[in-house]
Amino acid sequence: MSVEFEGNKACIAPEGVFIIGTYDEKGVPNAMNAAWGAQSDYGEITLFLAKHKTTDNIKHTKAFTVAFATKDTVEIADYFGVETGNNVNKIEKAACHVHKSHHVNAPIIEEFPVTLECECTSYDDNTGILVGKIVAQQA
Ligand SMILES: Cc1cc2nc3c(=O)[nH]c(=O)nc-3n(C[C@H](O)[C@H](O)[C@H](O)COP(=O)(O)O)c2cc1C
Description:
This protein is mainly β. It has a single domain (18-138), classed as Roll (Pnp Oxidase, Chain A). It has helices at residues 53-61, 74-80, 90-93, and strands at 18-23, 29-34, 37-41, 44-48, 63-68, 98-100, 107-109, 115-123, 129-138. The strands form 2 sheets. It has a 7-stranded antiparallel beta sheet with strand order 2-1-5-8-9-4-3. The protein has a two-stranded antiparallel sheet with strand order 6-7. A hairpin with a 5-residue loop joins strand 1 and strand 2 (29-34). The model has no long low-confidence stretch (mean pLDDT 95). Bound molecules: flavin mononucleotide (FMN). Flavin mononucleotide is lined by residues 17, 30, 32-36, 48-50, 52-54, 81-86.
């Protein structure tokens, strides 16, 4: 027998944890945590992002990186999702090391083992749908 749950907080699990790396207009790196997203074509990723420092940055640079949280990086990954780059330099506070992607204007966070380097194809403020073309990847 199945049980009906109240409310609309249903979710599809398990979810991955993507780390979205961006630069602001001054070149300061930032990172946020996103669970809602998936590969949506060969060489394409789609994420669902509300308004954040990250989306402001992407509107400016038209680029972002996507790294994958791992067991070893779980604390940093969690931190990137609970504080905003509007108030603090999260990369510095987490003592992460970054370098700029050779392909897009976005940071590669060296603590994460796999990174996709993406050009922003589109971002819709109303739906929060961000589509990125994966132009390079490194591990
Ligand atoms: C586990 C987890 C998953 C999250 N997934 C998303 C997501 O898919 N989309 C979104 O807009 N925010 C998501 N967030 C919230 C952002 O990561 C959070 O608001 C963050 O502080 C934004 O950082 P920024 O302001 O520096 O860009 C998630 C947070 C956590 C902890």
